[in-house]
Structure formats: structure tokens, C-alpha cells
Amino acid sequence: KRIVVLISGSGSNLQAVMDAIDAGQINGRIEAVLSNKAEAFGLERATKAGIPALILKHTDFESRESFDQAMIEKIDQHKPDLIVLAGFMRILSAEFVRHYQGRMFNIHPSLLPKYKGLHTHQRAIEAGDSEHGCTVHFVTEELDGGPLAVQGKVSIDGDDNAESLQQKVHKVEHQIYPLAVEWFCADRLKWTKDGVELDGKQL
Ligand code: GRF
């Protein structure tokens, strides 16, 4: 399958997917990496791997809609089967989301539906939770609200702070994101009108 990855920063999740492809775990290819920030380190990761690294600055556009339209045009040149949001820090317009409905994943650092939005690690600690984690989900118009695909858990220990928890969760992100992409590319994971299915069973 043909994959396009969207990033805004370090791209460690992008790296995890690239590594899983190199290891033969994923039956797919990253056709392009697109960043809204020119300085995103993930662009270097892509270039090093021989993957086209594209920059489209949202600040060059007048509106969210015109930026998203330009992204669609750039992305669709690569005819993607799957869009992977990997630390892409822009809210997407309804039109963009609809265009890639059922074929766009995001990863969020919490056990959704808990803690949508920012500062998830701090919020989990403050709530006194004993566990925390990350979620790969299909993207819908509701921010961090789409149907869940894969979750990974970590325990919150007494001496954890937001920073240490973030590091623990990041490690798990690097396991579950390649897994979700692997399953999608093998046609094992899909979102149909009946909900999200893995190997023909509803999640
Ligand atoms: C991750 O924590 C992910 O959950 C969030 O953005 C971060 C991206 O990290 N959506 P990286 O750029 O993949 O290292």
C-alpha cells in the first residue's frame, strides 16, 4: 500500500514506521512525508531514507481551508491508500477529513476517550490514574474523537512526572503505530459502516 506521513516535528513515530517497513513488517511504502514546518527533524529522517520530504507552510495560506486544499493536492499526487498523522500539529478542516475518511490514522498520547487535546500526561497524573497510554485511531471531524484502532498501556508509578511518563508512552507509541499500519496494509484493520474491524471482528 501507498502511505503518506504528515508531521510537524521530530518524527520518531515516522521513524518507527520506516523501520518496520525496512524490517519487512509492513507491506507498504512511504511515498512522501509532508511537514507544515520547514525545521521539522522528521524531514531529515525522510530524506536520509530517500523518501520525498515536502514542506507546505500553513503560514503561507490565508485560511485553514486553502492550506488543507493545497495539502490535498500535494498528497494526492502520491495516490495514497493511507495517511498517517505522526505528530502533525494542525487541526484539519472537515473537507480534508472527509476526503481521507477511513484511510487516515492519528496517534494520540492517552487512552482515548480519556484526555483529548494537550497535556495528557500531566492530566493523567493529576487525576491520580494508575494507568495511561496511547491510542491509534481513525480520524474524524471531532478532534481526537475518531473510532479507536489500537491502544497501548503503561502504568503510572509513584515517582512518575509528566516527562518520565511521556517517555514511557512514546516507547509504546513506537510499537503500536507500526502495528496499526501493518494491519491496515494487510487489509486486516478497517473502519466500515459497522465500526472498526480487526480480522473481521468488531473492536
Ligand atoms: C507523539 O507524542 C504523538 O502522540 C503526538 O505527537 C507526538 C509526535 O512525536 N500526536 P514524534 O514527532 O513522532 O516524535
TrEMBL record:
Site note Raises pKa of active site His, residues: D144
Residue numbers binding N(1)-(5-phospho-beta-D-ribosyl)glycinamide: G11, S12, N13
Record field: transmembrane: none
Function summary: Catalyzes the transfer of a formyl group from 10-formyltetrahydrofolate to 5-phospho-ribosyl-glycinamide (GAR), producing 5-phospho-ribosyl-N-formylglycinamide (FGAR) and tetrahydrofolate.
Active site residues per record: H108
Formyl transferase N-terminal domain mapped to chain residues: 1-181
Family: Belongs to the GART family.
Binding positions for (6R)-10-formyltetrahydrofolate per the UniProt entry: R64, M89, R90, I91, L92, N106
Gene: purN
Biological processes annotated in GO: 'de novo' IMP biosynthetic process
GO CC terms: cytosol
UniProt keyword annotations, A-Z: Purine biosynthesis, Transferase
Pfam families according to UniProt: Formyl_trans_N
Reactions catalysed: N(1)-(5-phospho-beta-D-ribosyl)glycinamide + (6R)-10-formyltetrahydrofolate = N(2)-formyl-N(1)-(5-phospho-beta-D-ribosyl)glycinamide + (6S)-5,6,7,8-tetrahydrofolate + H(+)
Enzyme Commission code(s) on record: 2.1.2.2
Protein name: Phosphoribosylglycinamide formyltransferase
Annotated GO MF terms: phosphoribosylglycinamide formyltransferase activity
Pathways per UniProt: Purine metabolism; IMP biosynthesis via de novo pathway; N(2)-formyl-N(1)-(5-phospho-D-ribosyl)glycinamide from N(1)-(5-phospho-D-ribosyl)glycinamide (10-formyl THF route): step 1/1
UniProt keyword Chloroplast, yes or no: no
